Amino acid sequence: MLRMATGRKKPAKVSNDDQGEISGTIYDSISGLPLAGAPVSIPGFDLVTVTDEDGYYLFDELFTGKYRLTCSRQGYQVPPEQTAEITAPNTAVSIDFSLVVADAANAA
């Protein structure tokens, strides 16, 4: 996956014709800024990655099927799990998360 200077993502070629990818960005819900260093996982497949300095993550070389995604970051509430589906070869699915600061949730 290549990234343009504007922060938008340029689709990369999926390496295997039978596979797809899931990517996205993790944001702070109040500031809207991306969160670096947030672990993102696909439970049941032992797949974990960490967001880069732009809050971006990528799981590639995934076969068709449904995948559950979770993420977390210290100081933030764990958001609800998201589901992504690779429906066909070369499918690219985007799933973003917006994290709420743990103290902000308690103050409401």
Q: What does this protein look like?
A:
With 108 residues, the chain is mainly beta. It has a single domain (21-103), classed as Carboxypeptidase-like, regulatory domain (Immunoglobulin-like). The chain contains 1 helix and 10 strands. The strands form 3 sheets. Strands 3, 6, 9 and 10 form a 4-stranded mixed beta sheet that branches. The radius of gyration is 14 Å and the shape is elongated.
DSSP summary: helix tally: 1
Give the overall form. elongated
SSE run:
EEEEEEEEEEH
The number of E-state strands comes to 10
Distance between the termini: 39 Å
Quick overview:
The protein has one helix at residues 102-107, and strands spanning 2-3, 9-10, 19-28, 39-42, 47-50, 56-63, 65-71, 82-86, 92-94, 97-99.
